[in-house]
UniProtKB/TrEMBL annotation:
This is DNA replication and repair protein RecF. ATP binds at residues 49-56. NCBIfam families: recf. It is found in: Cytoplasm. Its main location: cytoplasm. Residues 24-68 form the Rad50/SbcC-type AAA domain. It comes from Phreatobacter oligotrophus. Keywords: ATP-binding, Cytoplasm, DNA damage, DNA repair, DNA replication, DNA-binding, Nucleotide-binding, SOS response. One of its GO terms (cellular component) is cytoplasm. Gene3D superfamilies: P-loop containing nucleotide triphosphate hydrolases (3.40.50.300), RecF/RecN/SMC, N-terminal domain (1.20.1050.90). Belongs to the RecF family. PANTHER family: DNA REPLICATION AND REPAIR PROTEIN RECF.
Length: 392
């Protein structure tokens, strides 16, 4: 993450980013598609079709160009066409900081127990989808996220980690490693007489990973909050958010050296062994952190705002995050907006389209109502989706 951070100033503003975009997307045995190819030419791309036609499947395919399980958090097997052999593939030709590259990912058919996700850049195998971050970044907003501010802290923590992952492709692997380390500690504590030396070693690793995860989150939120403050428009229909993290380690890494915070957390883990053994879990750490948001113009906590206010606040937050990714990565992300315009009035919908054009990013949108995209007819690629077929 440090390599990307040094490219911008304290507000997150920097040189004009390069445009990142997908120029060709090919799907094979993916969800509802036996085979499909899209070649968008415009920065704004709209997929129109009835509910269940497969619009979101296209966005999900694009979301697999990042580490993780995509925008549906699906297992690899779930993404396969139901009449295939269990394998699937997504290929995308992208333009970015290294001109053009072909990114490919998917799984082979056959025994589900032996399947693993494969990733390639220009047909050369790479270790994971983290390697795609040199060529493309992807951010998204889906209807499932509409209840973010009313949902659990775990949902907001996953949202937060997606924010970090978009600027630091290795963040996901650190989060996963931390979860494994916490499980190892919990299993040791379940033993009648755990080996103290082994427990010390596991807690040493846990503290290192915990502080690394907390530092990534804290720095991303700090920079995002700085960018929002520097670019906020009180008159915007998508209000600015005031952000904070409810987490001891996240607060600590912004104030003290990481080594000091690690030592403090190791002491907490050691002192809490008896309590954690009784609870059956680790009761302190970044796996409990929460993302707090306030509706900037009114000062009201996001969870107390109306449904409409929360939706507008979330859209504003995702747009700000897209700008942050562009500034930190040096090229604009691909933005995926699933059914984002469905419940917006015409004025706010028009304002959204203007804001999206202002991002200078490629934006893929879905919608069931063709009228929602009438205002974009002259400035967007509009595709019709029906029965596993996509046509311009």
């Amino acid at each position: 993450m440090a390599e990307a951070i040094h490219q911008v100033d304290e507000t997150g503003m920097g040189a004009q980013p390069i445009r990142g975009r997908v120029t060709r997307l090919a799907l094979s045995r993916f969800r509802s598609y036996r085979a499909a190819t899209l070649e968008p030419r415009a920065d704004l791309v709209a997929l129109v079709g009835q509910n269940g036609a497969g619009k979101t499947n296209v966005l999900e395919a694009l979301s697999f160009l990042t580490p993780g399980r995509g925008l549906r958090r699906a297992t690899l097997a779930e993404a396969a066409h139901d009449q295939g052999d269990g394998g699937w593939a997504v290929s995308a030709t992208v333009e970015g900081p290294y001109d053009e590259a072909v990114l490919g990912t998917g799984i082979d058919g056959g025994d589900p127990e032996t399947r693993s996700r494969q990733c390639r850049v220009d047909r050369v195998p790479v270790g994971s989808a983290a390697a795609f971050a040199d060529h493309v970044r992807v951010v998204w907003l889906t209807p499932a996220m509409d209840g973010l501010f009313l949902g659990s802290a775990g949902e907001r923590r996953r949202f937060l980690d997606r924010l970090v992952l978009a600027v630091d492709a290795d963040h996901g692997s650190r989060v996963n490693a931390l979860e494994r380390s916490l499980r190892s500690r919990n299993r040791l504590l379940e033993e009648v007489a755990p080996d103290p030396a082994w427990l010390d070693a596991v807690e040493h690793e846990t503290a290192e990973l915990a502080v690394a995860v907390a530092a990534g989150r804290a720095e991303t939120v700090r920079r995002l909050a700085g960018l929002i403050e520097a670019t906020k428009d009180p008159a915007s229909p998508f209000p600015f958010a005031l952000l904070a993290l409810d987490g001891t380690l996240e607060a600590g890494v912004l104030e003290r050296p990481a080594v000091s915070v690690e030592d403090e957390y190791r002491a907490v883990l050691r002192d809490n062994r008896h309590r954690d053994r009784a609870a059956g879990r680790t009761t302190a750490g970044p796996h409990l952190t929460d993302l707090l948001a306030v509706h900037g113009p009114s000062g009201a906590p996001a969870e107390r705002c109306s449904t409409g206010q929360q939706k507008a606040l979330l859209i504003g937050l995702v747009l700000a995050h897209a700008r942050l990714v562009a500034e930190m990565a040096g090229f604009t992300p691909v933005v995926l907006l699933d059914e984002v315009a469905a419940h917006l009035d015409p004025a706010r919908r028009a304002a959204l389209y203007d804001a999206l054009e202002g991002l200078r990013a490629q934006v893929w949108m879905t919608g069931a109502d063709p009228q929602a995209f009438e205002a974009l007819a002259a400035r967007a690629d509009i595709f019709t989706v029906a029965d596993g077929v996509v046509s311009r």
